[in-house]
Amino acid sequence: NLYLKFKEPETLAVLNKNKVLKDIHKNDRCFILGTGPSIKRTDIKKLKNEKCIFVSQFYLHQDYASINPMYHIFSGMSPHINGKATYDQWLSFFKQIEACVPTETMLFMNY
Hints:
Blueprint: H1 2-6, H2 9-16, E1 30-33, E2 51-55, E3 71-74, H3 87-100, E4 106-109
Parallel strand pairs: 1-2, 2-3, 3-4
């Protein structure tokens, strides 16, 4: 049961660290951008000084780093979710993230 997993002390300790984010941008405008074929034709440079949350492999967009995104979520992209990935595949994935995602961007991964 997923609910019971969230009540385990180890899981709670990790999740409780997220409390510092509660209401951090309350009443601010925010953009959430997902991925898909049409995104390559979208001018995201207009979001340069906006609060943005990017999802999945959006870091591959040619203008991604230029807008200095605040947050990036990698949902379903962790060894806990995708147990079939090899060590080398994960190493390659994280190296790609390190090369593309600005160091100021806060990353969220599945736990």
